[in-house]
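Supplementary Methods S3. Complex input for the 1,5-di-O-phosphono-alpha-D-ribofuranose-bound model.
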Amino acid sequence: MKLMSVPETAEKIKSMEIRGAGRIARAAAEALRDHALATQAASYPVFKTKMGQAADLLVATRPTAVSLPNAVHMVMAGLDGVKTVEEARFGVVQRADQFIQSSHHAVENIARFGASHIRDGDTILTHCNSEVALGCIIEAHRSGKDIEVFATEVRPRNQGYITIRALNDAGIKTNFIVDSAVRSFINDIDLVIVGADAVTVNGAVVNKIGTSMVAHTAKEARVNMIVAAETYKFAPRTIIGEFIQIEERGPDEVLPEAVRKTLPNVTVRNPAFDVTPAEFIDLIVTEAGAIPPQMAYVIIKEHLGWDITEFT
Ligand code: RI2
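Predicted complex, serialized as structure tokens:
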């Protein structure tokens, strides 16, 4: 198996060849592990500096998915407490493997927990392409529940295509709709399930652009909305008042340059994510169990084990 270098992984995350908050996190952990194995260093401080540079490069690729800095933090933790290059290398490899394994377990457990919130006969709406949200839906189908799905297109990157392919391959009856058709179909929906790129301390969920419009529509129609999110998508630094940066991607994703050139007074805006406040969300399903969004603080403090001293 060819090892991927840190710049290669960083480029693939940036261009979204590797995408989805969980996959990004695992790819970063893998890149750090491979980098630790390949890095030659005459001394421990040199090794630490080289690892730090790799970590910074990975974290800078996409600013919104908190899973990325959380994974990097977990892999890099403990680098201060060792004395030799070999000890440091071993620690990074061990923590990276542990993160990747626990991420896979989290995805499996969330699928089981989330599937139990889906009833036989339910019609579910999902937006974007979340491996954990899809995991819940596919597990419900696998366990014999008769379900149907509405999946959105997800302009501008069309992640909905990946979603409908996965649902189709799982043998699930699926309706493909454009993003702006959500309100037209909301009365046919029993449950909305989406993923998350970040969950803040006040239980707000940052997810693919359009999620908050879906949430508003669902609330107005009294349709429950659940979010599937591993605990490493909760954002520790929101405890000290940091905001989640919303990534704004280039205009080419929305309108080709040739067209833009003919429209000198038009500026394309392309935020990749939006924020859904806690009051629009019924439950967040994590691998530590389902919680009301208002309990995000407990996940950050007790499950992720972040302490205020970590920020100083
Ligand atoms: P999983 C994705 O972002 C979507 O917003 C999706 O809901 C979220 O990450 C979580 O994905 P993008 O990378 O980790 O497509 O559940 O911009 O797969």
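Residues 19-22, 128, 130-132, 159, 194-197, 207-208, 272 surround 1,5-di-O-phosphono-alpha-D-ribofuranose (CB under 6 Å). The chain has a mean pLDDT of 96.
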